[in-house]
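Pipeline run #58 for the internal structure catalog. This entry was flagged by the ingest filter as a single-chain record with no existing model, so it goes straight to prediction. Upstream metadata was stripped on purpose; only the residue string is passed forward. Reviewer on rotation: M.T. Logging verbosity set to normal.
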Amino acid sequence: MNIAIVGTGYVGLVTGTCFSEMGVNVICVDIDENKINDIKNGVVPIYEPGLEDMVMRNHKAGRLNFTTDLTSCLDGVEVVFCAVGTPPDENGSADLHYVLDVAKNVGRHINKYVLFVTKSTVPVGTAQKVKNVINEELSKRGIDIAFDVASNPEFLKEGAAIKDFMGPDRVVVGVESERAREIMDRLYKPFTLNHYRMIYTDIPSAEMIKYAANAMLATRISFMNDIANLCDLVGADVNMVRHGIGSDTRIGNKFIYPGCGYGGSCFPKDVKALIKTASQNGYEMQLLKAVEAVNNRQKRVLFDKFSKIFNNNITGKTVALWGLAFKPETDDMREAPSLIIIELLLKAGCNVKVYDPVAMAECHRRLGDSVIYGKDMYDAALEADALMLLTEWKEFRLPSWEILSKIMKEKIIIDGRNIYNKKEMKANGFKYACI
């Protein structure tokens, strides 16, 4: 089976690579010639455990190829996956011009049936817009070629994307025809041999499922952060509260961990887009507006705790940050709490020292030399007045408190992920604050 994946960002590259791993012939397309050349030479543009080896293995085997020209491969493929970016506009709505550009290209150059599958996260109604654009381009050419559109939203967790794709808990597909369904069944069969996880819906429902899923998870995070802040005020232990409510089978224990706010490429963007979609249809998503407001406030909680410890006298203080990516096992800093905290600290006149196992280059790309880059976690903490834990990388879970006691100017730990033990902190002489 031959398919094309347009877009070699996070979703596109993982999708294409995993399909090729199962024997599908995949051509990944991107307009960025430098990126395509880098990938061919073994330089993968994103950090995802196991991805680089899988890309190189399948590229060497001839199942995974890369090009900048979609038109050159259209005659040889049965499916075109659109996995280009849909960044938020200033008003919060998803920018669809990349998606529609791909649709135009397909409409201008197809000479036989093709199934156009939207993999990008897009608002309800996008597939219809894609269909209209392709039809318009075919009409301009004065020809009538059969094609189908489908929606196949991704549910990949950064840091576990390959595992999620190779063994999905569900594959959601929105289709309009039996032909499209048969093609998608055939394509995903290798991933669902042990358990049939295909969920077929109409296309608008598939488009909505992606947004609704991310909005629900974001809601759970903001709810728990709100509860954590109230626990702080009334003297309750949020970890005990989390355990207590998580044992209720109606609630469960997923995504109820308090922290310093969610970030990344999905939750912030998708919550905004869903709020905007509702507004465009005359409806106000009051709950999601609150979810967004709570999350924005939560990203500054560690800074507020730090300021309180020093009675707001923080100018000239040196603060070490452990973790820059929005979550472990990725170098993704989009909407990361670290960016907000760094901005607040720098505005307050603090010196900021940072360390992250994989996101240092990304941080330098974003922030340049405005922060000091540690060679390792302890180098970042050297002479620090306080240490903030922002991302729960495994190497941060059991640090040497003896070393930190010797190298830090003041023994203050502010834990944004609640991974340390209060009693242990006290026993080692540290002043400890958490969510």
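catalog note: The mean pLDDT is 95.
catalog note: The two ends are 50 Å apart (CA to CA).
status: ready for reviewer M.T.
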